[in-house]
Design goal:
Layout (H helix, E strand, L loop, with lengths): L1 H15 L2 H9 L4 H29 L2 H5 L4 E2 H8 L3 H13 L3 E5 L2 E4 L1 H7 L2 H9 L1 H6 L3 H6 L7 H5 L13 H23 L9 E5 L5 H9 L4 E6 L1 H13 L4 E5 L13 E5 L7 H14 L5 E6 L8 H15 L7 H11 L3 E5 L8 E6 L1
Parallel strand pairs: 4-5, 4-7, 5-6, 7-8
Antiparallel strand pairs: 1-3, 2-3, 8-10, 9-10
Length: 369
């Protein structure tokens, strides 16, 4: 089978790469539609960085937020972003070409379809603003891949736990920025998980690495009878307990570091939401073993995160998270079967994947101790 695929890919590549074939395909009634789609996809890969920077400029310049309130003129938008007339028109035309905004009259602009989608997703806005760190780390991708940097990059500094020894967990100033980012980007993930699992069947839930408590807050709405525990670094747990208290959710804080400390016992459901993919295999395997030790037979571990091998989202796992986690200095996206093998090794009796509405956002695995 491998030999056949190799011959097929070789033949296909010779055809597509042949200038004469490319010229014919662009003119053929039968082939030019496919040819144009492929050319557009290739150009999108080549020019993708300018698209993301255009989006960043619209968000950081306040254009998306202003147009969320209604139509505005280019003069108003330019003043808001502190741009001259020519620069404003250049940015607005670029954003319109991407569907972020659209012109609805004589020099009058509103949000386009892509821009409207952003307004309902504050987590996406937060990630767009956050990406300036990733852009800096990817300025020389080969250097990043070769491990030639003598100092940690911008993302590694932003996520201190990725390379730290746990001491950063005592400092709220160090953990507050990434705790806020995780909280902002959590609602869409939480919505997928809450609809994939019946939380009301449990009595006590411990969220490991739960940050500011956004996931606990979402579960509390769906299963108000649950008792909650939050296990995270001391400074993070303090933030989470305070913010959950402000919205009326009672939680037992468990300050600690799962690299060095055991997982608290007494919970029949433990959740790991966007945790495993942040850590390398040895630490992730150790964490799963600690979770298994904290659970009684029949209790449940719920894992939720974006996973490799997701149909239609391959670029997300291998391109985006592949480089993001490398720049961060820790972790990788894993397939459900890779996670399942780790669960088997950790001593779980069985595991199964639960369907989510948007697997590109998160997939869910339930494991029984």
């Amino acid at each position: 089978m491998a030999g056949f695929k190799q011959r097929w890919v070789g033949w296909r590549n010779r055809m597509i790469g042949n200038p004469a074939f490319q010229s014919w395909a662009s003119r053929s009634i039968l082939a030019r539609g496919i040819s144009r789609v492929r050319a557009r996809r290739l150009f999108d890969i080549i020019a993708g960085f300018t698209y993301s920077q255009t989006l960043y400029a619209c968000v950081e310049g306040g254009i998306v937020a202003r147009l969320e309130q209604g139509a505005a003129s280019s003069a108003e938008l330019g003043a808001l972003a502190r741009l001259g007339e020519d620069a404003t028109h250049r940015l607005l035309r670029a954003a319109a070409a991407l569907g972020v905004i659209e012109c609805v009259g004589d020099d009058l602009w509103m949000l386009g379809e892509q821009g409207v989608a952003l307004t309902g997703n504050p987590g996406a806005i937060a990630m767009i603003r956050h990406h300036h760190l990733l852009y800096a780390d990817l300025a020389d991708p080969l250097s990043l891949l070769r491990g030639e940097r003598s100092e940690p990059g911008a993302l590694a500094g932003y996520w201190p736990y990725a390379l730290g020894d746990g001491s950063e967990g005592e400092n709220q100033a160090a953990v507050s920025p990434y705790s806020q980012l995780m909280a902002a980007s959590q609602p869409m993930v939480a919505d997928q998980v809450v609809h994939a699992w019946r939380f009301g069947q449990h009595q006590r839930m411990l969220d490991v690495g739960g940050g500011a408590g956004a996931f606990i807050a979402a579960v509390a709405k769906a299963a108000p009878g649950l008792e909650f525990g939050l296990f995270d670094l001391p400074a993070v747990t303090a933030i989470g307990a305070r913010q959950l208290g402000e919205v009326g959710v009672r939680v037992i804080p468990h300050p600690g570091d799962f690299r060095n400390d055991p997982i608290p016992q007494g919970y029949d459901l433990i959740t790991l939401v966007r945790i495993l993919h942040d850590h390398d295999d040895d630490l992730a395997q150790s964490l799963l073993a600690k979770v298994r030790a904290a659970l009684k037979p029949g209790d449940t571990l719920l894992i939720a995160e974006p996973m490799a091998g997701t149909p239609g989202a391959e670029a997300m796992a291998d391109a985006y998270f592949g480089f993001y986690l490398l720049a961060m200095g820790s972790g990788r996206a894993r397939t459900p079967h890779e996670i399942g093998a780790m669960l088997d090794k950790a001593g779980f009796a069985r595991w199964t994947e639960r369907r989510t509405g948007l697997p590109i956002v998160t997939r869910v695995i339930a494991a029984t101790a």
